[in-house]
Amino acid sequence: MSDVIHDTLRRPLASLRLSVTDRCNLRCRYCMPEDEYAWLPRTSILTFEEIERLTGVFSGLGVHKVRLTGGEPLLRHDLSTLVAMIARNPRIRDLAITTNGLLLGKHAAELRTAGLQRVTVSLDTLRPERMLAFAKSARHADVLEGIAAARQTGFARLKLNAVVIRGFNDDELTDLIEFARAHDAEVRFIEYMDVGGATRWSRDQVVSQREMLDVLARRYGAIEPVRPTGDDGRAPAERFRLADGTTFGIIASVTAPFCRTCDRSRVTADGTWFLCLYAGAGIDLRELLRRGAPDEELASLIRETWQGRTDRGAEERLGVADRGALYRIESLRADPHREMHTRGG
Ligand code: SAM
Ligand code: SF4
Ligand code: SF4
User: Does the residue 9 lie in any domain?
Assistant: First the structure.
């Protein structure tokens, strides 16, 4: 039996996002808009054994949900081997991935066999020419193939993430709902966040949850909130239901942040642990791993750090007058850990 540990706001340590690489095969404008990036040194990237060990320590402290992310997690060579290593930990009850889908067609079946339970695919637009302009990729068909493969492979509760940006894809809300319905998936609209990486963020490009609901109500009529059950109460998305039963989610990180229930933390591909998406600095766990610190030492560092956690990054941003991008490019270059593609979103 694992202990459940709580931070200063009574939030349990329950969910871990593991970034397995900071590299990506897309250049989404809201995440990686620059031409060049400073990458984490290869020798600093955790091995599968190191990730498995860390996951074991975290799970002993109450973590039971793990989401693999990146960068693009499917760029990590032989990812299904890591999935199998994590899946054999009986304390991990929910093992998921967030991917841009480009390589999912190739890997969906082996990931499922290895023990991956759930898949979220990022799909911002149904129009290939928009993806080309916005993510510098002509591979829209590969994303659709990836979604089809995930569905055929039988992953439960397939989710599609769409970051909604005014003037880019805010006219596709209903198309994305229809697409998700046709593919037995649930779409989650994400407010455009001013996180590291989003150096071109401005408030006027954010389409708020309120606006999204108004647009959808005009098309579909009454929309009712879905009452959260079980772990959903801590999930970032608020879920809604249309009159015909179709459900969708909205992640309103900008206009209605949910820090009060946040049980998530993040480990970057080089083993730096962040207690909040907005945190200025993280804790170097790799150093302990590589100098041979015993599990108990790692566990006490993690326990004590979590017990002192006060982070409410997105809520604090609400109080910032003249809110603009969180970081300028120079400060991201000075420390790539501030990037969204390093932190894993
Ligand atoms: N490459 C994978 C993908 O795109 O699904 C996983 C990593 S990505 C950083 C994880 C999630 O963060 C994606 O769903 C992406 O849309 C979201 N994201 C990145 N930048 C964002 C921003 N500025 N605002 C809101 N969501 C963002
Ligand atoms: Fe886009 Fe994900 Fe890559 Fe960021 S990490 S550029 S969100 S695909
Ligand atoms: Fe959690 Fe930080 Fe996001 Fe708030 S801003 S929900 S504390 S990760």
Answer: no
Whether 73 is in the pocket of ligand 2, judged by its Cβ within 6 Å, is no
Residue 10 forms part of a structural domain = no
Instruction: Express each pLDDT in 208-229 by its tens digit.
Output: 999 999 999 999 999 999 998 8
Among 31-35, 166-170, 326-330, the range of highest mean pLDDT:
166-170
- Does residue 5 lie in a domain region? no
Only one residue has tokens 């750090």, namely 305
**Distance, CA 28 to ligand 3 centroid (Å)?**
22
Residue nearest atom 6 of ligand 3, based on CA coordinates: 259
**Which pLDDT belongs to residue 320?**
87
Number of domains in the chain: 1
| β-sheet with 15-19: strand ranges across | 223-225, 238-242, 247-251, 186-191, 156-164, 118-122, 94-99, 65-69, 15-19, 264-267, 272-274, 283-284
Look up the CATH number of the domain holding residue 40. Answer: 3.20.20.70
Would the CB of 95 count as within 6 Å of ligand 2? Answer: no
What was the pLDDT predicted at 2?
A: 55
Q: How far is the CA of 320 from the centre of ligand 2 (A)?
A: 26
292 φψ region: left (φ > 0), alpha (ψ -120 to 50), beta (else): left
Number of the ligand closest to the Cα of 196: 1
Residue among 74, 76, 80, 56 nearest 66 (CA)? 56
pLDDT single digits (tens) 322-342: 888 888 888 888 888 999 999
C-beta 163 within 6 A of ligand 1 = yes
Instruction: Indicate which atom in ligand 3 lies nearest the CA of residue 258.
Output: 6
Pair 5, 21: CB distance under 8 Å:
no
Tens digit of each residue's pLDDT (9 = 90 or more) over 266-309 = 999 999 999 999 999 999 999 999 999 999 999 999 999 999 99
This prediction has a pTM of 0.96
Of all protein residues, the one whose alpha carbon is nearest to atom 20 of ligand 1 is 31
Give the atom of ligand 1 at the shortest distance from the alpha carbon of 24.
1
Q: Which residues span the domain enclosing 334?
A: 15-343
* 323 occurs within a structural domain: yes
